[in-house]
Amino acid sequence: MNDIWQGVQEAISLIFSADAEVMRIVALSLAVSISALVLSSAIGIPLGVWLAFRRFASRRLAIAFLYTGMGFPPVVVGLVVFLLLSRSGPLGWSGWLYTPKAMVLAQVIIAAPIIAGFTMVAVMAVNRNLRRQARSLGANNLQVTIAVLQEARVGMLVAVLAGFGRIVSEVGAVMIVGGNLKGSTQVLTTATVQFTRMGHFEQAIAMGMILLTLTFLTSLLWVLLQGGALQES
To answer: Hey, where are the domains in the chain?
Structure first.
């Protein structure tokens, strides 16, 4: 127990002393996660809105594929991206393997379906009477869509937060495609694994504490947004 407490104390010291290695890992983690979140949102939000509004023959099949994507095993995603980016793969010419770009790509594949799925559900949950009322007042299709999205905005923000939570805590896929290379592709999750294996528990605890703080802040924002939506309703 004393060893654990000592590790926590040393971890706190590393964080508040702005240890260079810790700050570098945190900076890269945020850069990769935010980049992946922006790209995932740019793909997932329009896709979710489109699936919520459109009616076509294979819509149920498309939604089934989307739900499957929401549950993609990260290690499988990492394997697929690795094979795509390897020298013998179709994207081997890019030179992305074992770079932050590969990590962003893997995280986008993981998070985009989650954002799309939550966005679709949020839009579909809007009372259909809103569309009828808007059309009865002379609104065109674009105006009706804007009104529905305005009503679903909290759910869509929650979708983005859910995607970020999945991205920032990802370890399997980024370990495979990034290689966990010190100084270039080491992020909070992979650094925690490596430091633990090396017996550097104070650094591992520091990484874990920062990661938990980011996850908590994301969850807190999620709860506040949901609470706001409940109060409005």
So the answer is: 20-227
- The helix/strand/coil state of 147 is helix
- Look up residue 44 and give its two tokens: 């997932």
User: What span, in angstroms and rounded, lies between the C-alpha atoms of 73 and 196?
Assistant: 23
Considering Cα of 67, then 70, then 76, then 82, what sign does the dihedral take? positive
Residues of the chain with pLDDT under 50: 230
Amino acid found at 36: A
Which pLDDT score, from 0 to 100, does residue 7 have?
67
Give 93's DSSP letter.
G
Name the residue type at position 216: F
Give the whole-angstrom CA distance, residue 151 versus residue 193.
42
> Taken in order 196, 202, 207, 209, is the CA torsion positive or negative?
positive
Task: Give the closest residue to 67 by CA, choosing from 21, 143, 118.
Answer: 118
Q: What pLDDT is attached to residue 230? A: 47
Q: Quote the CA–CA distance of 207 and 190 in Å, as a whole number.
A: 9
- Closest of 224, 79, 48 to residue 145, by C-alpha: 48
**CB count, 10 Å around CB of 63?**
15
User: What superfamily would CATH give domain 20-227?
Assistant: MetI-like (1.10.3720.10)
A 10 A CB-CB count for 137 gives 10
